[in-house]
Amino acid sequence: MSIKKTEQITIHDIARALNIDSSTVSRALNDSPRVSSKTKQRILEKATELGYQRNSLASNLRTNKTNTIGVIVPRISRNFFSSVISGIEDTAQEAGYNVIICQSFESLEREKKIMETLMANRVDGILISISMHTVNYDHLKPYLNLGGSIVFYDRPCHFENCSSISINDYKASFQATEHLIQNGCKNIVHFSGPQLIDLYKNRKQGYVDALKKYGLEFNEAYCLESKLSEEDGVIFAKKILEMGHIDGIYSSNDTAAISAVQYLKSQGVNIPKDIAVVGFNNDPISSVIEPGLTTINQPDFEMGKMASTLLINHIENKKTKPESKVLDIELVIRNSSKHN
Amino acid sequence: MSIKKTEQITIHDIARALNIDSSTVSRALNDSPRVSSKTKQRILEKATELGYQRNSLASNLRTNKTNTIGVIVPRISRNFFSSVISGIEDTAQEAGYNVIICQSFESLEREKKIMETLMANRVDGILISISMHTVNYDHLKPYLNLGGSIVFYDRPCHFENCSSISINDYKASFQATEHLIQNGCKNIVHFSGPQLIDLYKNRKQGYVDALKKYGLEFNEAYCLESKLSEEDGVIFAKKILEMGHIDGIYSSNDTAAISAVQYLKSQGVNIPKDIAVVGFNNDPISSVIEPGLTTINQPDFEMGKMASTLLINHIENKKTKPESKVLDIELVIRNSSKHN
DNA sequence: CTGTTAGCGCCTTCAA
DNA sequence: TTGAAGGCGCTAACAG
């Protein structure tokens, strides 16, 4: 900000105008009890009169505390993540923290850069959902060495002694598959995600184990792996139609399930009668549009709140031991739409 | 960040280790040409060896420049906005700026607080899409007085000599309505938004004028005003069914159009044969799901890029005169879905 | 309750 | 090409 010095009012300007010392002004502006309410009053008045604007850079430099937490998220456009962010902001604001949101776009390179700038800006802590291309965590170390705290959310991750919060993907997957089986499905396809990520590996395992429990054969060809792109659903739907005898879909991929359903419908398939579908899906629009879809309701907002709370705890109370919280989900069957 | 001093490596540590002065180190780390490449080399090596991490707080304080721009957005979960943000980040990153994203959640109170923290953190510039409850702009003044630059995007706004970028809402609306009329609609309902916001006022006017041009009567009861909440569409759809003779909907509200369409379909209405629909809608999911919807395609990503470019221009070149850019849209008729 | 003093880590004249 | 010195705006001892 190229600023003429005359425009920057500092505590010294206030002090000078009032013939007192700048340290008193500082105390007053921080509402310290060690200033008489009378002078506090005078100082605040003069401050607004002169149009004083606190310079946090200076104060943060001095105190070595920014009251800011960084959030690294694959992409904010995914509804699940924007809800998590809301939860984070909610809690953070209440505790007096600012939040900086950064998108990695699933790229390790961008994640590294983000870490650097968050570190350079000395954020007090970082909440991160690692990108799907992140396989080692070297880029997190410098920040930890610097004394920062990191909490992983959504995509679980065991690293140093950082806490993490995730949902019980295995169990969720198991339940979803079980639900389909109990409703009579015999040939269930699984829309999976990148197997490099534990999350998707766990989900696949839940699917596999549920099949096993009910004596259904596991068929690798039934696992359609997606890179989480927009149009995978349609491709998958076509494959399903080719296969011919599929009667169930368990999708661990938000958007894929939706577009698959749409495509299948357009081809005259009756959902869920011909093919039943269960998917992860926190998108409010699609829930309005596809009332027949059974969805796995992930606690997004709550996850944000918990992650934020945990991180702030770590920041303010370094002794706290790392925790690994695993949240359960619930299956929500949207048989009836929200239209009443 | 409560840090033991021993962990914070500074330029002085590097200087001491090399028996040179910290100012030389500073120059080297900033890649100044006024340092021999030999010492530069030594310094960089020692820096990585010691695990030096630049403290931007200090440097920003000193230079009075943060290389950071703040973005205020009503909510990131709306697809239009997250695309705008991507555009902003794209351009900003290339120009060497960091981006801080803040959500106002359409609340003036939150907007005020955000302005304060962005100001306190001395961001170099701010991109803002004002909340729908923002009627005056007093909270922006202190930042401008401090020498900051502001650019308005999406929701146009004439204030001091700030630039703004928006789409031609009037024209878009006119075209949309005209499209319906030319396709034989006689009784066209308009889903409008808060009339306090110029944007929605302009959109309504476009609708009104298009009706006028084609000699159709304007009926105030046909304007269904929404507060941009999720479920308005269903309420509106019910009203339409009550009215009985509606054959067209022009919606200036993303989600309302979608849920209305869904509800109408569930009641046996044929879209677009019985009722034709044109709406603003940048949501990729709904475009997959409702292929029959005619949508007004807003240049979201481009808007972000342009806004960012303009702001950075203002920041780096204060003489730049304020501009008001107005982008045109195009009607996209999604008769055929994306499924090929 | 208020003033004095001394930096936080970095950058930038000004000299050499 | 490098060093010395001072200060960005604020806060935190320590005195009084």
What's a concise summary of this model?
Chain A is of the alpha/beta class and 340 residues long. Chain A has helices at residues 11-18, 22-29, 37-50, 56-63, 79-94, 108-120, 141-145, 169-182, 198-213, 232-243, 254-266, 284-289, 300-316, and strands at residues 68-73, 98-103, 125-128, 149-153, 163-167, 188-192, 223-225, 248-251, 276-280, 294-297, 324-327, 330-333.
Q: Might you state the CATH topology name of the largest domain in chain A?
A: Rossmann fold
Major beta sheet, strand line-up of chain A: 2-1-3-4-5-11
Number of helices of chain A: 13
The CATH architecture term of the largest domain in chain A is 3-Layer(aba) Sandwich
The averaged pLDDT of chain A comes out at 88
Briefly, what CATH class of the largest domain in chain A? Alpha Beta
Largest interface: A-B, 66 and 66 residues
The overall number of domains of chain A is: 3
What's the total number of strands of chain A? Answer: 12
Order of helices and strands of chain A: HHHHEHEHEHEEHEHEHEHEHEHEE
Q: Gyration radius of chain A, to the nearest Å?
A: 26 Å
